[in-house]
């Protein structure tokens, strides 16, 4: 092992500099500045090169983290990029948006007694450098194959599969109902976590590599799944989950009570320079408003922080459990607190009140009771404990469920689980329809970008095996 490594005993952990909260509130730039080359090299050298690297075990992509840290510490960045990109389609995106505290960094062994290696920030540094130096290349087919593959959904799962399949030489077409590729990476996750150029430059390279994009095409509306099955030799459904969970309380239909994704899409579109009438009319703009966001996940955190940047008069997050039980990443909660968001823990909305539009939220204080069958403490109301918050914009961020795909696609044979996610054979990733595979949130439920990438890559491998087997035994595979 190089003497260069194991520097954690000497060098302290240093994440890239975080921009001051007052500065962040006034713009849409990312929160963390980039590492300078020397800092990245030093931080990488803190790794102790574990024989059994728990960071790698807990990375959904099983990235070869110790190797690219060592290469970075030695200044061999082009090789570091080769290693990082061998297992990850979008290392620079994961470096920005993975909840590293729960994945790689949270399981780094030097966390015990010292502080973990800054794995995500180094991964971002390596890949941003690779882009700057021109080392990132469009997918190149090893040899062209005649078979054609259709991918429905241009989110991380669909794009990761597209890249692998195109590299294997397949003719790949990606369909998406939005006008830009990227899925939630482009229209869900805000700019201050993931600047949009980072996503757009990848999509542009994929196009250069021969992946065809059919945007503004909603499967089920503009084309049927049956038609796509006829058009392609295999299909991948990677449509994500988009049915917003609702709140059943009085006043939920009042103007000014809006869904999180509508709000975030409008903000992201505005940032991309699009005409967004529902933003310009003020309906989805928090400027000058008293904003209440209901929910405690990452989507809720993105909404509160977007509202701060839009110039809201006040921003309050209402969550029915306490801080320790929030599903969102603690890093994002901390960022929101620094930026001036007020949290009302253990509080749930009872009613939205107002005459022509919402004016206030009446809320009920809760406490955590006994654990349920899953071991999670149940939330119970405290009798007589109510309070009211002024609110002229309420954003509902309670999570997402799958749309009814069998109905939307008019394919009753497309089997779903009791949660509405697509049922797949977990070995082959094929749905109940022969030749139709599925990956990402539509299989796992609302998850993470990094899991979408993993699933997309795995699905690509399975589709390749399926098409190879079919080519070798066409009679057996005939439907
Ligand atoms: P998606 O990214 O949802 O992509 C699906 C694509 O399919 C979309 O482009 C959609 O337009 C298209 N589509 C759907 N139906 C059709 C149809 N019928 N016809 C044609 N196209 C269709 N994860 C993280 O790791 N870190 C984060 O910080 C983070 N922040 C998040 C913030 C928000 C607000 C949200 C909502 C999610 C966040 N996530 C985050 C989760 C992450 O974005 C998702 O887990 C991931 O994008 C799922 O990838 P996917 O490819 O399965 O689906
Ligand atoms: Fe960590 Fe995510 Fe990178 Fe894996 S992909 S090493 S979990 S930041
Ligand atoms: Fe290095 Fe930490 Fe991974 Fe060990 S667990 S290889 S110290 S990054």
Automatic annotation (TrEMBL):
Enzyme Commission designation: 1.4.1.13, 1.4.1.14
Ranges of residues in domain Dihydroprymidine dehydrogenase: 26-134
Cofactor(s) needed: [4Fe-4S] cluster
A molecular function GO annotation: glutamate synthase (NADPH) activity
One Pfam family named in its UniProt record: Pyr_redox_2
Keyword Translocase: no
Domain annotation FAD/NAD(P)-binding: ranges: 150-451
Identification of the protein by name: Glutamate synthase (NADPH/NADH) small chain
């Amino acid at each position: 092992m190089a003497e260069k490594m194991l520097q954690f005993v000497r060098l302290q952990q240093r994440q890239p500099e975080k921009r001051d909260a007052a500065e962040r509130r006034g713009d849409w730039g990312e929160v963390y500045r980039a590492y300078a080359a020397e800092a990245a090299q030093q931080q990488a050298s803190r790794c102790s090169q574990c024989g059994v690297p728990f960071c790698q075990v807990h990375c959904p992509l099983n990235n070869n983290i110790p190797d690219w840290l060592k290469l970075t510490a030695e200044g061999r960045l082009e090789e570091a990029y080769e290693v990082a990109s061998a297992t990850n389609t979008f290392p620079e995106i994961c470096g920005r948006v993975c909840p590293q505290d729960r994945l790689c960094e949270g399981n780094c062994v030097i966390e015990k007694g010292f502080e973990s290696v800054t794995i995500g920030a180094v991964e971002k540094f390596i890949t941003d450098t690779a882009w700057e130096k021109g080392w990132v290349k469009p997918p190149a087919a090893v040899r062209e194959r005649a078979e054609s593959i259709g991918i429905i959904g241009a989110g991380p799962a669909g794009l990761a599969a597209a890249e692998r399949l195109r590299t294997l030489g397949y003719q790949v077409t990606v369909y998406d109902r939005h006008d830009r590729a990227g899925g939630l990476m482009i229209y869900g996750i805000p700019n201050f976590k993931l600047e949009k150029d980072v996503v757009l430059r990848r999509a542009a390279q994929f196009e250069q590599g021969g992946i065809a994009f059919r945007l503004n095409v909603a499967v089920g509306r503009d084309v049927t799944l049956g038609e796509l099955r006829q058009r392609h030799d295999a299909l991948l459904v990677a449509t994500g989950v988009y049915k917003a969970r609702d709140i059943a309380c009085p006043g939920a239909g009042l103007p000014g009570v809006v869904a999180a994704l509508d709000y975030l899409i409008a903000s992201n579109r505005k940032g991309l320079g699009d005409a967004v009438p529902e933003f310009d009319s003020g309906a989805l703009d928090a400027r000058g408003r008293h904003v209440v966001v209901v929910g405690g996940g990452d989507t809720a955190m993105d909404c509160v922080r977007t509202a701060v940047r839009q110039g809201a008069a006040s921003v309050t997050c209402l969550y029915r459990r306490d801080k320790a039980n929030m599903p969102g990443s603690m890093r994002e909660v901390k960022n929101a607190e620094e930026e001036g968001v007020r949290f009302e823990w253990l509080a749930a909305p009872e009613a939205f009140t107002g005459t022509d539009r919402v004016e206030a939220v009446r809320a009920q204080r809760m406490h955590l009771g006994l654990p349920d069958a899953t071991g999670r403490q149940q939330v119970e109301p405290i009798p007589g404990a109510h309070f009211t918050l002024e609110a002229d914009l309420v954003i509902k961020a309670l999570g997402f469920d799958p749309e009814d795909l069998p109905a939307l696609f008019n394919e009753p044979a497309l089997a779903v689980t009791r949660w509405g996610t697509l049922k797949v054979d977990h070995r082959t990733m094929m749905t109940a329809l022969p030749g139709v595979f599925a990956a990402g949130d539509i299989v796992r439920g609302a998850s993470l970008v990094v899991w979408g990438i993993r699933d997309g890559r795995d699905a690509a491998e399975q589709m390749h095996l399926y098409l190879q087997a079919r080519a070798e035994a066409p009679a057996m595979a005939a439907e």
